[in-house]
Amino acid sequence: MAPSKNNWVILYLILGLIWGSSFLFTHVALESLPPFGVVFWRLALGAAALGIVIHYRNIKITSNWKNLLLIAGGGAFMNALPFALFAFAQQHVTSILASIINASTPIMTLLALLTIFRGEKLKLNVIVGLLIGMAGILVVLAVWQGFGENDPLAVLSLIGAVACYGIGGPFIVRFVTPLKLPNEVLSLVQVGSAAVIVLPFYLANPNLSAPLNSSVVVSIALLGVVGSGFAYVLYYEVIKQVGSALANSVTYLTPLVATVLGLLLLGEQLHWYQPVGAVVVIFGALISQGRIKLGRSKLEKPRK
């Protein structure tokens, strides 16, 4: 049964829980699989789950090559590239840090709308919000310590991943959503094409770094079937109901989920500047999106 209209808040919360836990599952899966292995199996299992759903519901898959290529473009920016960058980075940083940097996705989305897609005007609240959000990222990274123990290449990978998300959301709204295909089909083609993109890189180094165990198998299965399969049906539905800017703000929830799981199950440490920086990032994003208003006198002249 297709999701009913105007239920985006429920879908939004479910997405936050699913994608917040993905940082934990990625961390566990990396114990045995190389980064491209984690990404490939995550995407392949997600595509398989979506394929079963489509077969069960007897939904027709489009054969229009132009449509398929457009959806594959969304898969590259929303799955293949950012998943690979996050998996690489999580070999060197905590799942908590990765999830907090992921919370800057709305900032990156707005930057993409301002520069690449030209979907937003450069208003005062946008400028202020972007500057605050970027300052928050610097606080999260503790730049006064020279990034502390964090590998600079891993940090760049995290920022590159959220930049891909920032481009991918508006790309989907402009080029994919207007195709008016079923959410299940959009998700299958997106995730499946991303798996194809990643496969050659995985085959170049398919070796396990450690024997598989039940924790790794369960983690990669949940990453794939739930996190990269069913979750994208929900994601497309949220985009359809409220747009990409609000849909991508689900990353406000993921650090909360990931931090709790990282502390309780992985024994990771939480430094004071990480939650402080996360709050600053979210505050900046809310200002830039107009959900927190600056004083009227600072934004516009009073009407006569």
Describe it for me?
This protein has 304 residues and is mainly alpha-helical. It has one domain. It has helices spanning 8-29, 35-57, 65-89, 95-102, 105-115, 124-140, 152-176, 183-203, 214-242, 244-248, 254-265, 273-288, 296-299. Helix 1 (8-29) runs antiparallel to helix 4 (95-102), helix 3 packs antiparallel against helix 7 and helix 4 runs antiparallel to helix 11 (254-265). Residues 297-304 have low confidence and may be disordered.
Short structural summary:
The protein is mainly alpha-helical and 304 residues long.
SSE order and pairing:
Elements (H helix, E strand, L loop, with lengths): L7 H22 L5 H23 L7 H25 L5 H8 L2 H11 L8 H17 L11 H25 L6 H21 L10 H29 L1 H5 L5 H12 L7 H16 L7 H4 L5
Helix pairs in contact: 1-4, 1-9, 1-11, 2-3, 2-8, 2-9, 3-7, 3-8, 4-11, 5-7, 6-12, 8-9
Count of alpha/pi helices: 13
What's the helix-strand series?
A: HHHHHHHHHHHHH
The tally of domains stands at 1
Largest sheet: none
Give the overall shape, derived from the CA principal axes: globular
Distance between the termini: 53 Å
Radius of gyration: 19 Å
Got a strand count? 0
Percent of residues in β-strands? under 5%
Portion of residues within helices = over 70%
Protein structure class: mainly alpha
Overall mean confidence score, pLDDT:
88
Assembly state? single chain
